[in-house]
Amino acid sequence: MVPVAVAPAHASVADDAPLPAPSPVLGRITEEWPVVLGDARPGTRDPDVVVVDGRRPVALWLHDGRFRRVVPVSARALADEEPLDVLRRALDRAASVRFHPVVVVDRHGDLVGVVPVDRLARLAAER
Predict the structure, then answer these.
(1) What is the domain-level CATH number for residue 80?
(2) What is the pLDDT of residues 24-36, one digit of tens each?
């Protein structure tokens, strides 16, 4: 399905004026991260998503260069949400988790991927 941009009913748009380009849905800009089942410890220095019940994300293994730590998922978003809406919600989180990645899920709550907040911010800056 191709997204279509629609001008609000109250807007006056000339017939030949171009419509704004539709923004990408979140699912198109996600990154795939390795998955760790339950309470297993990952074996690499890469970030990982901890899942239970098949593909339900519950936590993230993050690293800051020296230390690895597990943190609960602090933001979930549906794959068909607008990235700028997700960025606004992510920035409204507590300062301690504000820049933790956003976990993207489908309508069933299963993992689709992960989007770093800085990637959302770069997208916003390009608009």
Answers:
(1) 3.10.580.10
(2) 567 677 777 777 7
